[in-house]
Design brief:
This protein is an alpha+beta fold and 303 residues long. Helix content is 22%, strand content 31%. The strands form four sheets. Strands 3, 6, 7, 10, 11 and 12 form a six-stranded antiparallel β-sheet that branches.
């Protein structure tokens, strides 16, 4: 057999000869020869029609019938009015009036009782501490005449616990002048130059004052974080630096925690729970504030 020949389909079909009625034979004699036979070929294995599957609706209905027939794990309660029926009995409740004073007293007792078992919330408290002593009086004027620029004072911010401000005094050797504070919080891996502002009315004939402000910022807000800075004084005669005798000016951030509930109780009772016995209030105030006073300037730092 050639590869172009069509394979034989013998054996795949069965031949069926059908008989004809007399009327059909009479009609066919006019058109066809009497020797022609009616032959039909049908497959040996006729396909069996597949049973039609259930629709989604039928399957869902069947599933619901099975679920209803199974014993329920929980009993569900329905009210008659939700299913269209009438309630057997209806009772109405009216809120009674209560004394507001008693409610406040009861609420205060509950709050006090809960406070005994509530985990205290620790609120952070920040404080900045300079690691250098600024000169004052004659020492300050001598440093200004020698270095042309010197840090005069440093004080913490009253509104922002992470910030502090300072004053720089410069020698008036040029009308056009500028002061910059170069600071770092990562040990000089990076630094920024912050321009200082001229203090109006600070000229005393030979010196002028400039003010600046620095602030700790995340991620350098942990206990022991440091800000190091130096001062650059730019004039038409050249640039001059102040760096605390080559040790840089350093300010350290101190962090402490106070229990919020303890502080709230202290405020509510008007008593200082942290005050040791036998220590007078005026002595405590003296311990809280430490003053650094020079001849011409005063610097205060809260502890």
């Amino acid at each position: 057999m050639s590869f172009l020949s069509i394979p034989s389909q013998e054996g795949l079909f069965t031949t069926i000869r059908t008989g004809r009625s007399d009327d059909d034979d009479d009609d066919d004699d006019e058109d066809e020869d009497d020797d022609c036979e009616d032959v039909r070929l049908i497959p040996r294995c006729s396909p069996v029609p597949r049973k039609r599957g259930h629709s989604i609706y039928d399957e869902t209905a069947e599933y619901m019938r099975i679920q209803v027939a199974l014993p329920a794990g929980k009993k569900r309660v329905f009210f008659a009015d939700t299913t269209g029926g009438d309630l057997v009995e209806v009772k109405e409740f009216v809120a009674f009036d209560s004394d507001d004073g008693d409610d406040e007293e009861e609420s205060a007792r509950w709050e006090e009782e809960e406070a005994k078992y509530r985990k205290p919330v620790r609120e952070p408290s920040y404080r900045v501490r300079p690691e250098f002593d600024a000169p004052g009086g004659g020492a300050l004027l001598q440093a200004v005449h020698s270095n042309k620029v010197e840090v005069e004072q440093l004080s913490p911010s009253e509104t922002e616990p992470l910030a502090f401000s300072g004053v720089v005094r410069v020698l008036n050797i040029s009308f056009h002048k500028a002061v910059y504070i170069r600071s770092t919080m990562d040990n000089w891996a990076s630094y920024y130059d912050h321009p200082a502002e001229y203090v109006q009315g600070s000229h005393d004939g030979t010196t002028d004052q400039f003010s600046f402000r620095l602030c700790f910022a995340p991620p350098y807000t942990t206990h022991g974080s440091r800000i190091e800075f130096v001062v650059r004084y730019e004039t038409s005669d050249g640039d001059f630096w102040a760096n605390n005798s080559s040790m840089n000016y350093v300010v350290t951030l101190l962090l402490s925690y106070e229990d919020q509930m303890r502080a709230r109780l202290s405020i509510g009772t008007g008593k200082n729970l942290n005050r040791p016995r036998g220590v007078a209030k005026q002595n405590e105030d003296a311990l809280k504030t430490q003053s650094f006073q020079n001849d011409n300037s005063v610097r205060a730092f809260c502890i």
